[in-house]
Write a structure and sequence with these properties.
It is a single chain. Strands 2-3-1-4-5 form a five-stranded parallel sheet, sandwiched between helices. The protein is of the alpha/beta class. Helix content is 54%, strand content 14%.
């Protein structure tokens, strides 16, 4: 079983992965770690941390897909989280892989971003990882645009999307409940 947690930066994907690791005793992998490992460790790497998210997704997805397939083929469970999990590519897996994948995307509504950008989003951005702020990327207008894009991609590709509208903690509990149900179903089959 592979649990994929996608969405825009600062939505709580890493915290969720850590919580699921503790609950299910399933390791998690951050796509950011793969990205930075390639950037820092390979003289053949042809991208940088400042590249556009679409470019990074294009470069990283084949690696992530290979990791997903290998884990499923080996009967190993893993949680993979990050911004570079394109909803439009998940359905490309063959059915025998898809039945072992739980994919969920988290996003914020425009209203939530406008009300809670500083206190609810930026204030909690480094709960697990220490992140520097890129002011061009992490600003209200860009976040509204990016979250809207992820929501539309999920809708277009029938990917499970949870939008946080008012109360982060309460609404995220619905995401955990949904994942719990999916895990129970996958482990029984």
């Amino acid at each position: 079983m592979v649990i994929l947690i996608g969405g825009v930066s600062c939505t709580g994907k890493t915290v969720m992965a850590q919580n699921l690791l503790e609950k299910y005793k399933i390791p998690y992998l951050s796509i950011d770690h793969i990205k930075m490992g390639l950037i820092r460790g390979s003289k053949y790497c042809d991208f940088s941390a400042t590249d556009d998210d679409n470019e990074l997704t294009y470069k990283l997805w084949p690696i992530i897909k290979g990791i997903i397939m290998t884990n499923i083929e080996n009967g190993q469970h893993i949680i993979i989280e990050g911004c570079y999990l394109p909803p439009e590519y998940i359905s490309d897996f063959e059915p025998n892989y898809l039945k072992q994948i739980i994919a969920v995307y988290i996003g914020f509504s425009k209203n939530y971003i406008e009300k809670h950008f500083n206190s609810g989003i930026l204030e909690h951005r480094s709960e697990i990882e220490q992140k520097e702020i890129d002011a061009d990327y992490v600003n209200k207008d860009n976040f509204i645009k990016l979250h809207s894009q992820v929501k539309e991609l999920c809708k277009k590709n029938n990917a499970k999307f949870f939008e946080i509208n008012n109360d982060y903690v309460v609404e995220m509990s619905n995401v955990y409940k949904w994942i719990d149900g999916q895990v129970k179903t996958k482990l029984q089959s």
